[in-house]
Amino acid sequence: MKHAHHASKRWLAAWLALLCLASCGLAQAAQSLPFTLMPAFTQLTPLVLAPADQQWLQRHGVLRVGVSITDHEPVDITVDRNRYRGISADYLNLIAGRLGAPLQIQGFARREEAVEALQNREIDILTGASGFERQVPGLAFSRAYMPDDAVLVVRDTGAEAALPAGGKIAVLDGYTDLAVLHDAYPGHPIVVAPSLASGLEAVAQGDVQGFVGNEVVVRAYSALRPFMGLRIADSGRLPAAGFAFAVRRGDGPLQAMLDRALGSIEEPLRREILGRWTAGLGSDIAQPRVQLSAEEAQWRQAHPKVRVIASEYPPYLYRDRQGNWVGLNRDVLATVSSMTGLQFEFIPSGSIAQNLQALRNGTADMSTTLSESPERKVFLGFSHSFGGQGWVFVVRGNGPGVASLDDMAGRVLALPREHALESQLRQQYPRIRLRLVDTYDQARDLVRKGEADATLDSEVSAWRAVARYPQGELRVGRSVEGGWAADHFAVRLAEPYLLSILNKSLEAYPVAELRAVRIKWLGAVDGQAPVWQRIAPWVWWALAAALSFGLVSLMWSSRLKAQIHQRERLEAELVKAREVAEQASQAKSGFLATMSHEIRTPMAAIIGLLELERETTRLRGGEPSRAVDVAYQSARDLIALIGDSLDLAKIESGSLQLLPEAVELRPFFEAIVQLFAAQASQRRLVLELTLAPEADGVYRFDPLRLRQVMHNLLSNALKFTARGGVYIDVQGRPGSPLQVSVRDTGVGIDSEQQGRLFKPFVQVGGQPDGQGTGLGLSICKQLVSLMDGQIQLSSVVGEGTCVVLRLPLPRVAAKPGTVVDAPPDVPTRALRVLVVDDLSANRLVVGQQVAFFGHAVHTASSGEEALAWWREHPVDVIITDCRMPGMSGYALTQAIRRAEAEAGRLPVPIFCCSANGQAEEAERCREAGMNQLLVKPLELQALGRLLAGLGVPPAFDMDTLRRMTQADAEVMRRMLEELQRNIAQELEGLASAVSKADWPALRAALHRLKGVACLIDAAPMAKACAALDVSAREQRAQALEDEWAALHARLDELAEDIERQLWEMSYPK
Questions:
Q1: Does some domain include residue 915?
Q2: Quick check: 1021 and 955 in contact, CB under 8 A?
Q3: Residue 176: CATH number of its domain
Q4: Lower CB count within 10 Å: N or C terminus of the chain?
Q5: How many CA atoms lie within 13 Å of 873's alpha carbon, on the beta-carbon side?
Q6: 773-803 pLDDT per residue, tens
Q7: Are residues 121 and 45 in the same domain?
Q8: Residue 118 and residue 246: Cα distance in Å, rounded?
Q9: Whole-Å CA distances, 106 to 31, 67, 144, 247
Q10: Considering Cα of 780, then 785, then 790, then 793, what sign does the dihedral take?
Q11: Does 661 share its domain with 762?
Q12: Which of 328-342, 608-622, 757-771 has the lowest mean pLDDT?
């Protein structure tokens, strides 16, 4: 009782302080806000007034009506942005229609201010006058337009609800005279609540034991908040009164006119007014009933589907078990749809931030769950309100309560991102520590886990959400002072007609229908959380233990049966696993074959062109440049590595085999350094090789694999070194392992990463640009292990890294000789080679390789083109790609073999050129009728030997001559004789030009000879002419004698063949 008495004194002190502050302002003039009276729901004919009454109204012009901005719904509703509605507003509309007088509505923050404004003649009429105003002297009252039956509200404890003895009673400020209330409830402390919400919250949370207020107002408020657990105990024991209009006692004519107008309202209309605001008796809405302007109708026609961004926020909007959108806002939109013809399409969203983003970027037109804030009004418009809720705190069930936002100073408040109150809280309550999350559920979870002290939610949503948690985990706390979340629609400012249509719909929405919908969704209490959520955790553990014991017992009793079933299952799983492994192996093989083909194809062009350059240079008597040699060797090494590096199965199974050979150490390492010299120079780094004299010599090892290891180490060292250099040191003595160290001055590696570096797919955290696969060092370790060696890494962050290889490589006594590829034997007659490939680069390379040996080349880009050429022209050899669009190499071969069999022709040699060197590919080539599979890249020497092995024809082709002369023997004889004379003449001219170094004459003679060679298909002579022509063009006198001798020999051979052909024609067998 003592505590209650102190609490009552604090309430009274606060109330007196507010009155004092208000009185300071009222000494000058009561502050008011203009309100708009909503249009009348029905029209009445004007009354016939007496002349004196008409004169009185004319003198006053506009009747000024004062209203109190308090929680008096449905009597006075003022929460919707200066729009005045409610029971009093309906009666005012009817009175204005009866009297024919315009009204001006002014709202006052406190009831006392409105009363004083009436006394000071600032207003003419005061609405909602009841017991409180009747105690004020100097006022007169109209007849009551609504009963004011007081009731006592208490907590619903489940037993017979009653006010305990000495219990505190709260009453709404300005509702009744406190002395009258004391007389009605003697022995009960009285406290004044500044608002209806605060008074009823105090009852719900046990701060006071009762609340006295108007029955209609109380029922309207509590009907939407059944979760508060309130009930009406009995009547309020106050004298019977009613709501009336208050005027000054001296304004008798006005009082009389009000009474007359109220008396003219018939009882059915009175009941309709009361029913509009107190029951859900609205009529059905089946047809569109909103009158749209021409622009609005045009907009509706252009936008039949309105995109609504929707995030779940029960009970306003959420999805049911079938996935359909339901809730209060969904029903309101359904009614708006029937009233306007608009169709609403819901777009799912996961958070407030996503809602706002969708509205910003125009992927949605409106939202139904966004509250109004200054930041949002920059790009959103908000419709009229169709209800609202206050903001409340949600706190831990056993945690400290929160009385106000000031109490949250220094504490953590969890909110969804871009919450309507976020900006206000940052500005007005900077000491609150905000913790932003995506959804309300996440915010409540933070509170439940103790990571946040509270969160904010609307009343209905908070009570419903808390009910879903196990009992005692969360509870709803106090409401936020001054916080109100109006229910309205948020529309993009770019769609003003949509906002106008929605506002018209809400204005025409039947009040009773809207109230019924709100009660349906907001008045229903969610049940408690499911039973399984309310069971204590230890019960679950006990049940789990019991079930485990029973399961073990069952398994023990049926052990033999379980073992049999398990064995059968394991066997089936093994069979399935084997099938899966075989399928994976086949898929891997196919993948590796494809990768090998895709990499070998472009590399074949590179290697072919480099090899041509080397051999061409050697034929001219020179030596290839070091750069060409390095590029050629690197490309060859890469092709050699493809076969094993891409074969993951071979690495995993340990079947990778080393191919050791005798290698001289110094040239080996110098070639590696030269390969990376350009990269080091580009990065302005030192790249230095130190090879101890005692380590120099010839060793037996696999140069490809050791080169692969060194390439990996040097590549990493250069990549992670920004300044300084990379140093290679080779040490070794007879009888001891060869030690190779690679040291850099780079960023270094910390100890934690060093332990993981040699594992597959592990990269250093500072890897630039995400390069690499993380396989390099792992492969290095495997290769070094295959060499029976060791690899060690040491590093200091910021100073550099050193990798040491210890390899037990055997020494070889003698240095290996330098092997130079011998040029292949070139046939004495040019073969007619048909090269078929759909890739121009491959046709170019293979064509040049074949032409290098003096053969005639024709290229075709498809199998169809090649088949047509073969049918019309003689072909000695066909080199074709396997896989081509349209007719493949296999199909081309099969078509040629069929045509040869039908015509009885000798089979032409056909070679398949492919980047896939697997046995399956070779078998497929043989089945198609090909002679041999050639794996890309084609080695020049191997190709030369292959073509040379196809036979050595005569110096020129008699078949060509026969076709030219249509096999006319006399014409052939004359042509051979003329050719013999021309060759003899050209020999004389060439000898003279060579002896005098007459380059123009020499080139002219060579040009004539090349024409002759092409005419009779004399390939050896053509090749010799081409070589001599190169020297003549470049005027290389030192090579002239050798090349002239070669040409002279070819001309002599041609002359001998002509002589032999003439003899055979003269003396046929």
A1: no
A2: yes
A3: 3.40.190.10
A4: C
A5: 17
A6: 445 677 788 888 888 999 998 888 888 999 9
A7: yes
A8: 8
A9: 9, 6, 21, 15
A10: positive
A11: yes
A12: 757-771
- Both tokens of residue 554? 């069952």
Residues constituting the chain:
1069
310 and 190 co-located in one domain: no
Q: How many domains does the chain have?
A: 7
Reported as a pLDDT band with limits 50, 70 and 90, residue 411 is very high
How do residues 540-569 score in pLDDT, each as one tens digit? 788 888 888 888 878 887 777 877 888 888
Count of CB atoms situated within 10 Å of the CB of 320? 9
Instruction: Clarify whether residues 139 and 259 are in a common domain.
Output: yes
Q: Could you read off the pLDDT of 665-701 as tens digits, one per residue?
A: 999 999 889 878 878 888 899 999 999 999 999 999 9
pLDDT of residue 43: 85
Residue 914 lies in a domain: no
Name the residue among 84, 218, 33 with its Cα closest to residue 92: 84
Same domain? 133 vs 158: no
* 914 vs 934: CA distance, rounded Å: 6
Q: Residue 180 sits in which domain range?
A: 150-239
Same domain, yes or no: 673 and 786: yes
Residue 100 domain flag: yes
Of the candidates 256, 125, 152, the one whose C-alpha atom is nearest the C-alpha of residue 212 is 152
Is the same domain home to 396 and 373? Answer: no
∠ CA 264-268-269, rounded to 5°: 60
pTM score over 0.90: no
Tokens 């001798």 correspond to 1045
Are residues 299 and 441 both part of a single domain? no
Angle between helices 252-263 and 51-60 (to 10 degrees): 110
Residue 381 CB neighbours (<10 A): 22
Which residue among 812, 831, 859 closes a domain?
812
Give a yes or no: residue 374 inside a domain: yes
- State the amino acid at position 276 in one-letter form: R
The pLDDT of residue 71 is 63
Region 1019-1044: what's the mean pLDDT?
80
Name the DSSP letter for residue 319. Answer: E
Is 433:412 a contact under the CB 8 Å cutoff?
yes
Cα distances from 62 to residues 99, 105, 254, 606, in angstroms, run 11, 10, 12, 98
Reduced to 3 states (helix: H, G, I; strand: E, B; else coil), residue 1035 is: coil
Which H/E stretch holds residue 889?
A: helix 889-903
